[in-house]
Amino acid sequence: MKYAILGSGAIGSALARRFAAKEINVSLANTKGPESLAGLVTEFGDRVKPVTAAEALQANVVILAIPFDAVPNAVKGVEWDGRIVVDATNAIDFPAFTPRDLKGRLSTQIVADAVSGARVVKAFNTLLAARLGADPAISGGRRVLFVSGDDVSARTAVAELIERLGFAAVDLGGIAEGGRAQQFGGGVAAKEFVQLG
Predict the structure, then answer these.
(1) How many CA atoms are closer than 13 Å to the CA of 163, on its beta-carbon side?
(2) What are the distances in angstroms from CA 103 to CA 31, 109, 127?
(3) CATH number at residue 13
(4) In terms of Cα–Cα distance, which of 76, 90, 192 is closest to 134?
């Protein structure tokens, strides 16, 4: 399974740090090109490979760690052929820092429209970047990351990845139900949960 993170900002870097810590190979891309990632690659080691955005978008599992509004242009023209896209975005109105009014739609539904042909899973968006990049072991347990998606096998694959990264995966079911809780402003967004034991 080939993993890629599109986006090297706070969330993308935090995720790359966890991949490196668990010695899981991952490609990392941004809009500035692989050479702009030299500092991060030096920090994370050879498990994190800098690539072009076009190369990253060909992985089996592509994690979108880019601004919500950037998604349509970033994924334009890609043939997904059933590959997994992980929506780690949040639809936020700045500078108010409030949930975006999407006229009753969920942000993940809009992302899914942009990646037609992909199996979309919502994950990695509910923890603040500092917590996402830190050791998930805490207070005798592990930090929780939530997953939702309409394709059970894709959801399971992402939940397994979350466990490999050291977090506790909690499956919330389909996008319409579980994804609603994960959206910015939802019940589990920007909150820290710990699974004990």
Answers:
(1) 9
(2) 29, 12, 25
(3) 3.40.50.720
(4) 192
39 contacts: CB under 8 Å, gap ≥ 6: none
d(CA 191, CA 176): 20
Helix (H) or strand (E) holding 143: strand 141-149
**Residue 82: C-alpha distances to residues 111, 126, 172 (Å):** 15, 25, 21
pLDDT, one tens digit per residue, over 133-150 is 999 999 889 999 999 999
Tokens of 42: 């030096």
Look at the pTM and tell me if it is higher than 0.70.
yes
Handedness of CA 136, 92, 148, 194 (dihedral sign): positive
pLDDT of res. 63: 98
Which percentage of the chain shows pLDDT scores above 90?
Answer: 83
Domain that holds residue 71: 3-196
C-alpha 27/C-alpha 40 separation (Å) is 12
* Total number of domains constituting the chain: 1
Give the separation between CA 8 and CA 65, rounded to whole angstroms: 7
Supply the pLDDT for residue 189. 87
